[in-house]
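The records we work with from here on pair a chain with its fold. The integers have meaning only within a learned vocabulary of local backbone shapes. A complete example follows; check for yourself that the lines match position by position.

:::
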Amino acid sequence: MHDDDEQRARQIALGVFAMVSTKWGLQVLTEVGTGRRFRELHRAVDGISYKMLTHTLRELENHGLITRFDYGTANPRVEYSRTDAGTSLVHTVHSLCEWSRSHLDRLLDAPAYRTGPQTSRGLG
């Protein structure tokens, strides 16, 4: 990979990461699956407003993670589905969740994940 390509790949990865780490990004991407209509998605994503769902769908589409198909009928009918890149990203996130489960005991022992007062081990 050329340096320019590597730099561009990093920029894309950071943009996608920022998008899916929003409150709704990953949840909407996961719910889109292989094809869902707007109202189905609104029902599936608890607590999201119409405005925020519209915004999130546009962002996911702009990042190449979903496609929007307008049937062009008199009654508006639009369906969203994940692209191959979007599906691959969902699988990658699931792998990250598996990783965290397999290392849960050690991760929970880390200072960032301890509950209660922050204390140092072995001191006083």
